[in-house]
Design a protein that fits this description.
Alpha-L-fucosidase is responsible for hydrolyzing the alpha-1,6-linked fucose joined to the reducing-end N-acetylglucosamine of the carbohydrate moieties of glycoproteins. It holds the Pfam family Alpha_L_fucos. It is an enzyme of class 3 (hydrolase). Belongs to the glycosyl hydrolase 29 family. By secondary structure, this protein is of the alpha/beta class. It is built from 10 helices and 7 strands. Strands 6-5-4-3-2-1-7 form a 7-stranded mixed β-sheet. Helix 4 crosses helix 5. The longest helix is centred in the middle third of the chain and has 18 residues. The protein starts with a strand and ends with a helix. The relative contact order is 0.18.
């Protein structure tokens, strides 16, 4: 099942500008890089797809809604689990049912191409930690080891590029329940065990193996960019990586960075400033008003109408 096909809208701005300046990174280090393709690509498609697509209830934050200490909608999620699953069911038990049996990368790419979109971004890893590629840093918790038994990132990326579309990857810096992350958090982020063992190795792996045109970072909001080692990674990305001349990034690299520093600004979800901006920006929005991913309990009224979608597109791109 295709989960949560989301459209990006990005407004043409007064100048072509790639301005990553996260803390120690000077803008001149990356100003030389071309973003012509991004300047011309006004519409893209964002796909939220992962283990959360199996229960497909509430949103892609299902696991957090079920087990998170500070979660909202916990009552509804627990009631859903009690009604549909055995009492000792775990989130990991959803993995074998994430079969992707109807996934056909070529068919998806055809749909994307025919829509008029110019780029596609797939959730390589959401906050649950399950990777849609056979990551060496997510042992037994990836799409080749369990579930689809496929490299979803690799297959979709190849099909999308065959249609002459740009391919980007969403990656969550943090993971809700990873023991190393929780330990770093208890240490007030004075330790970086999770970043060194998981987050950064994954990002370097994604870039070196799949060579994405966009790195769409998320899950940054609990810690500063110094914890995430964002400056080190971005400096490598724009100066030494295999995509240094073509890649663009968003602005979610630390809790004080969002809406300040990025190849393009996304600020908060569904960002639409309403006036012409001097910086590149993106309106990252959903079709479902309540969720980025498919949810089985959604009603027709929960989806934006064609008229509202077109209005948003015109307001953003004009």
């Amino acid at each position: 099942m295709l989960d949560g096909l989301i459209y990006f809208r990005r407004k043409a701005t007064m100048e072509i500008r790639l301005g990553i300046a996260v803390t120690a990174i000077d803008t001149h280090l990356i100003g030389k890089h071309s973003t012509k393709w991004f300047d011309e690509a006004k519409i893209g498609i964002f796909i939220h797809w992962g283990l959360f697509s199996v229960p497909s209830f509430g949103s892609e934050w299902f696991w957090w809604s079920w087990k998170g200490k500070e979660a909202t909608h916990k009552i509804e999620t627990k009631a859903f689990m009690k009604k549909n699953y055995r009492s000792n069911y775990t989130y990991a038990d959803f993995a074998p049912d994430f079969t992707a049996e109807f996934f056909n990368a070529t068919e998806w790419a055809d749909v994307f191409k025919n829509s008029g979109a110019k780029y596609v971004v797939l959730t390589a890893k959401h906050h649950e930690g399950y990777t849609n590629w056979p990551s060496a840093y997510s042992y037994s918790w990836n799409s080749l080891a369990i579930g689809p038994k496929k490299d979803l990132v690799g297959q979709l990326g190849a099909a999308v590029r065959e249609k002459d579309l740009k391919f980007g990857l969403y990656h969550s810096l943090y993971e809700w329940f990873h023991p190393l992350y929780l330990r770093d958090k208890r240490n007030n982020f004075q330790t970086q065990d999770f970043v060194r063992a998981k987050t950064m190795p994954e990002l370097y792996e994604l870039v070196n193996v799949y060579k994405p045109d966009i790195i769409w970072s998320d899950g940054e909001w609990e810690a500063e960019d110094t914890y995430w080692n964002s400056t080190e990674f971005i400096a490598w990305l724009y100066n030494d990586s295999p995509v240094k001349d073509t890649v663009v990034t968003n602005d979610r690299w630390g809790k004080s960075v969002r809406c300040k520093h990025g190849g393009f600004l996304g600020c908060n979800d569904r960002y639409n400033p309403g006036i012409l901006q001097k910086r590149k920006w993106e309106n990252c929005m959903t079709i479902d008003k309540k969720s980025w991913g498919f949810r089985r309990e959604a009603n027709l009224k929960d989806y934006l109408t064609i008229e509202k979608l077109l209005l948003t597109m015109v307001e953003t791109i004009r």
